[in-house]
Fold these 3 entries.
Entry 1:
Amino acid sequence: MPEQTVHHPIVAVTADTRSFENYTWHAAPSTYLEAAVAVAGVTPLIVPAFGDRIDFDAVLDRVDGVLATGSRSNVHPALFGAEPTPDHEPYDPQRDATSIPLIEKALQRGVPVLAICRGMQELNVALGGTLATEIQAMAGRNDHRAPVSDRQEERFAIRHDVRIKPGTCLARIMESVAIDVNSLHRQAVDRLAEGLEVEAVAADGTVEAVSVKGAPGFAVGVQWHPEYWAASDGPSGRLFRAFGDAARAHAVRHAPRMAAE
């Protein structure tokens, strides 16, 4: 019998919609794509934000992971039962209509998921949780927004520590219960979805990482931005390599199906 060939892992990447030069673009920041290729060792495939016009099952039949990226836009508050206000803006409803069901179906099918910043917030909303906005104005909370700078290196600088719950998926990945991360958000988890487990918190109690309870595959969300420093920062690289390993394991498990097709 000939040796079975396992295909190189491909991961679906969520897209934002942007208007530029009279076109609507479906795009993802290059930092996520670079981290996927260079550190996770997978091939990223951007999924256009066309909502239910996308056959999510067909996408998930052909990929070995989902990378839900961060974004300047926020999940629309109507999706978690809140009244829209200027504090919740800006929005990207096309992304909401695509990324959230893609995450839901990936979890149902055991496809590995890594959800970053907005992606983690989408994960919480997808499972029934809610979000809080302008958390820097809340009593006892720190300012988690990005530093004001024209230099990305300063905006994405490692700024504060997070405390990892011992025995969690993240603790195993990091081989530590404390790491330092960057911070570029003004929204955060409010009511945690029942299907999620807190994996890490900031000193002020802000939820910094979650995992999906009972998930058949890798399913982790982080509020910080490991993609920016994945090639040079130890914890950031560990997270992307763990995601890549999960995608490769998924590829091996599904190789017989792919061969049959």
Entry 2:
Amino acid sequence: MIRKFQTNDGLTLAFRDEGEGLPLLCLSGLTRNSLDFDYIAPHLSGVRMIRPDYRGRGESEWADPSTYTVAVESLDALALLDHLEVDSAAVLGTSRGGLIAMTLAATSKHRLLGVCLNDIGPVVERNGIEHIRSYIGKNPPPVSFHEIAKSLAELTRGFSNVPEDRWWQEAQRRFIVKSTGVFINYDPDLARIFDDPPEGASAVAPDLWPMFDALDGLPLALVRGVNSNILSASTAAEMRRRRPDLTHAEIPDRGHAPFLDEPESLDAIRTWLGRLA
């Protein structure tokens, strides 16, 4: 069931809060929402899954596009924990959600019990960013919902051996149907995060390794799609070198990002949760 709360800047955001046990803050990818974790939810026990829709996504209110940043979304995550009176939580972060988790480790580590990163690390591959840039903020052409689901199977890079009904489920989570057509389930202005930087600003990607290193001492897991265009094998190897205790899984037939109900994903996440317990 969808619930609502207000952020520190007065925005109304949606979230789901289900289950009992270890608080598990589930943070989705850039254009995605809390429904992404529907696949894994039936497979976990002993956890309280707290799943927000970021500002401008899903059931949450749209905002000034200048606030669609990891820094602001990290503050929103803390505001949600405060609203629920949760002192600390584990974080399962997919892509953007993992960047938020690393930000929280660098700024509010005392609020974290552990972190599981789903197909994200401190180096985000340029070809993956360009792929996201190519589609973000664009509504689909006037075609049937069935055709949209079929196109997801054809256009989603790095995925194979995925049941046809999974793409139908994905279409239901990524798009909304209105009387006037089918639309993306987020604010199209989210695409403005890829606008050219202001004159004089650096276009060089920031060094995120210090943020990864800020996870030191927290139980850590990494799930990576073997065919990912966002998290390279070499970056994952360096993450493992820096954190030999990292619980790690490589997911075959998956790109960016695994659905998390794959057997390898579930094994890694359950092992990580066991360490937290």
Entry 3:
Amino acid sequence: MKPVLVTGASGFLGWHVARVALEHGCAVRALVRPGSRVQELPVEIVSGDLRDAASLARAAAGCGMVFHVAADYRLWSRNPRELYDNNVEGTRNLLDAARGAGVERVVYTSTVGAIGLKRGGLGEESTPVSLEDMEGDYKRSKFLAEQVALEFARDGMDVVIVNPTAPMGDRDFKPTPTGKIVADFLAGAMPAYIDTGLNVVDARDAAEGHWLAGQRGRRGERYILGSENLTLAEILRQLAAITHRNPPRVRLPYFVAWCAGAAGTGWAKLSGAPPRVSLEAVRLAKKKMWVTHAKAATELGYQPGPAVQALTRAVEWFTRGQGQA
């Protein structure tokens, strides 16, 4: 059996995708940046960069399947061009390398942010959406990267796209922006909240969804990998029940949050230090990112667990300390 290449295996979701591939009996090759490592997993490390075509060719050589999970997941950057270089051109570079290496199938990890939303309903893979609907450079770069993947699929390459929602759970090393909700709650650094909504999924379930997409997905199709639609207030109440703490009770008006985000982002541009809450994050929160994973359930056999499972794993992870097994 040819090895499986996983990009982003040193990060949160990519780590879980690599673990699932190993559990299914695959040899896993992990593309990581110089100096990075993949904790705990017996994988072959290949050092490289999505902007370095030669390193991608070395990584893809001899592989049968590629899971392209790596992404520049930042809701603020002093140089937004970096997000497009990594997410859009990096995806193009990797797909070129995979095609040149004769890879049989690529599973590209997009984002729920590239899914269209319905007023009064749940977003699904076929909901109309355009670049103009994307708020901020992260979402725009991921939307454009998804278009690159679709372009390769139309040209005959076997590419399947998955759109994870808000993964939470263990091994959130940095943490990610969604994991930071849990980390901030545990640190007592969330005295108030805003009216927004997320679809929460256990990272383990999202990773299994990647594997199912690799086995059963149709070329050029998109599959939402989510679980449960919750308001932020509901997420905080579940965290409070898990930890036996009190949830924050003050709901900030959107305008107050917008002002805080604008001030923080303005200072970040001057100082170079990332803002605690970026204006882009506040703008993203204005819409409830509620979707359905019915297509993945029907076509892939995807069966995620409830959000409380993901939140419990995340609490345990951040409580015992990041980076510990």
